[in-house]
Amino acid sequence: MQPAVTRGIALNRPASPPIRLSFGLFWLVDLVATVFLFLVPYATELNPITTHFYNLIGLPGVVLAGSIYAVAVVMIGHYLPKPYDALFAVGAVLVYAVCASNNVILLMSGEPVVETLILSL
């Protein structure tokens, strides 16, 4: 019997499945909300790279830009030694949580989180 040969890149993922799941979920919510930002007339995407990709190829450019960001985060986490890879992943989750929250609130209320918080005070 021959040993099984695995191909591909063996990524040094953070050991915590909840961190990986959180990253994936927040990334997906942020991606969907960002796509909707380009469809509503009252909101604008602030990220110039995403906007550039949108201007080049439309909504698939938004998905492409978001996918590039996710791949960059995964690759950076791959090259960081433990425990910095997990700390970096937690940082990425927090950034995506803030971005996703802001985008969803912007889509629902028509105003960004900061303005919504200031108006509610």
UniProtKB/TrEMBL annotation:
UniProt entry tagged with the keyword Membrane: yes
Source taxonomy: Archaea, Methanobacteriati, Methanobacteriota, Stenosarchaea group, Halobacteria
Record field: transmembrane: 21-44, 56-80, 87-108
Source superkingdom: Archaea
Protein name per Swiss-Prot or TrEMBL: DUF5658 domain-containing protein
Keywords: Membrane, Transmembrane, Transmembrane helix
UniProt entry tagged with the keyword Membrane: yes
